[in-house]
Design a protein that fits this description.
The complex is a heterodimer. Chain A is mainly α. Chain A has helices at residues 2-22, 41-49, 55-68, 92-119, 123-139, 157-166, 179-194, and strands spanning 83-85, 150-152.
């Protein structure tokens, strides 16, 4: 009797999990999903760079990646270091400057909150805020995002699939763009700012073109 | 094609492809996989609710669906080419008939050549796991009887149809349509008599 109840509960949990994932429970930007065609890049970079953190702290950071990836609307593009085009007639260059500024504010605010919470020993709160900042900084290094590329309300499945294709696997440093170094450097940079080993910079991005400004020492600094 | 075997082989190969793509890093990362599975990524995006990213279940489902589609398509093409190859091998018996015919043959030798070609093709087909048996062909039936029945226009399926089409095409090419039609009509009449005589226990 008890075994039947346990099995039914397990079935319900499995169905809920499937429904969650099918309704976009994962990913956006650098993908957060891990499957035959894609890697959980956000999480893998955190595991790789912040290996010195405890597993539970890293889990808090990694969980945050999936949560941020639920925000899929073009108007939420600042969370993913992209330029949102929310309606017809919007100018791309103007929108880019606007979303760069939004993203700057978001990252600064998240890191300030993380540092403040850390000082108050509110570990979970601190890491949640840090995870949000890390997400935007990681996304800024993606080939599908760098330079605050456009994410438009008018995009169809073709553009979406091309976006997924261009960032489906964990990057390497085989090209001059050195995506791997930038991705991992961005994580380390955010973590060092959080640990107050680095000052919070005035700008994370070039204010016109949106390129991530990452100190050279962070290219494979971990 | 043998449907059950095709399905089982496709599933087995799909398992191997899945293991390869998930466990073998260079395959997982290869651009070819990305390009080859782009339709699966499109499907994943649709299943994930038209987002920039793709959900794990959507990704796995689309990957498996497309892997099976590709494999079944590959197996179908393989089976078609195999059928063609086996048929070509069976035509060797018709070449033998061409030699006999120049020495003045009877209709019975035509039945035998035709039947041998069909039995040869069907025998080879039956030894292959991907091809289904042609149920209307009995491998224990004498070649001349099978050839006579095929010439009567019965059992025209599988290798019988292929071999018969080749015979017609060769006759037309070599002797022209009028002579070919006349010869086929004669063989058909002789075939009926041959079958009746075989049934009665006498030879043509």
């Amino acid at each position: 009797m008890w075994s039947i109840v346990v099995i039914r509960k397990a079935q319900i949990r499995l169905m809920l999990a499937l429904a969650f994932v099918l309704h976009g429970g994962t990913s956006n930007a650098w993908t957060s999903a891990s499957g035959p065609l894609s890697d959980a890049i956000h999480q893998e970079a955190i595991d790789k760079v912040l290996a010195s953190m405890s597993a539970s702290d890293r889990k808090t950071l990694k969980d945050q990646q999936e949560l941020v990836d639920k925000d899929q609307e073009p108007s939420q593009s600042a969370e993913h270091a992209m330029t949102g085009i929310t309606e017809a007639g919007q100018n791309e260059a103007t929108q880019r400057i606007y979303y760069i500024a939004l993203s700057e504010d978001l990252i600064h605010e998240a890191l300030r909150s993380a540092i403040a919470a850390k000082r108050l020993n509110k570990n979970k709160e601190a890491l949640t805020a840090l995870g949000k900042a890390i997400h935007a900084l990681q996304d800024a290094t993606s080939p599908a995002h760098c330079g605050f590329q456009v994410w438009s309300y008018s995009f169809g499945i073709w553009e979406m699939a091309r976006h997924v294709l261009s960032e489906r696997v964990y990057p390497d440093d085989s090209t001059t763009k050195r995506y791997e170094s930038h991705l991992e450097g961005a994580v380390q940079y955010a973590y060092d700012i959080y640990k107050e080993n680095q000052p919070l910079p005035g700008h994370f991005f070039d204010s016109i073109h949106g390129q991530l400004i990452l100190p050279d020492s962070y290219l494979h600094a971990y | 094609m043998h449907k059950r075997n095709t399905a089982l082989i496709a599933l087995l190969l799909a398992g191997l492809v899945t293991v390869g793509v998930t466990m073998w890093s260079s395959a997982h990362r290869s651009e070819m996989v990305g390009i080859f599975y782009f339709p699966a990524i499109l499907l994943s995006v649709i299943l994930s609710g038209r987002t920039r990213g793709i959900g794990a279940v959507a990704e796995w489902s689309a990957f498996l669906i497309y892997t099976l589609i590709y494999l079944v398509a590959f197996l179908i093409i393989y089976a078609v080419l195999l059928e063609w190859f086996l048929l070509r091998k069976g035509f060797a018996h018709l070449n033998q008939y061409d030699t006999e015919r120049t020495e003045g043959s009877t209709s019975k030798s035509a039945f035998e050549s035709l039947g041998r070609a069909i039995l040869d093709v069907e025998g080879r087909r039956r030894s292959h796991w991907l091809l289904d048996n042609t149920r209307s062909i009995d491998l224990s039936e004498p070649a001349d009887l099978l050839g006579a029945r095929v010439l009567q226009g019965r059992k025209l399926e599988g290798p019988a149809k292929g071999v018969m089409n080749e015979v017609k095409s060769r006759l037309i090419k070599e002797r022209g349509k009028v002579v070919a039609d006349a010869l086929l009509a004669k063989w058909k009449a002789d075939a009926t008599a041959h079958i009746q005589q075989r049934a009665a226990g006498t030879e043509l």
